[in-house]
Predict the 3D structure of the following.
Amino acid sequence: QVQLVESGGGLVQAGGSLRLSCAASGRTFSSYAMGWFRQAPGREREFVAGISASGSVTYYADSVKGRFTISRDNAANTVYLQMNSLKPEDTAVFYCARSRSRWPGGEYDYWGQGTQVTVSS
């Protein structure tokens, strides 16, 4: 069983930055791609960013390109999301998830509980 625990959310002013972390249990972290998703009130959950198992390949939603950076530390079983130039429309619950494969596309089978990010104007 894989457990994912997010941290680092909070309240920040527009233009500010936050760094989210997601710590994973288990010995297979480095074998799977990881992703960050978000869900705003009244909206469906959406993909934000993904990173391959080795960390060599990353993908981003158009809405966050150039502002967010996903990275991972396989020795620490942790994936990060550095968020800069935050906007009020980034307000959401952010979730990390583990992919079924080494690449960020496709299905994600394990999810964290989420961490709230609120950006004030």
Q: What stands out?
A: The chain has a mean pLDDT of 96.
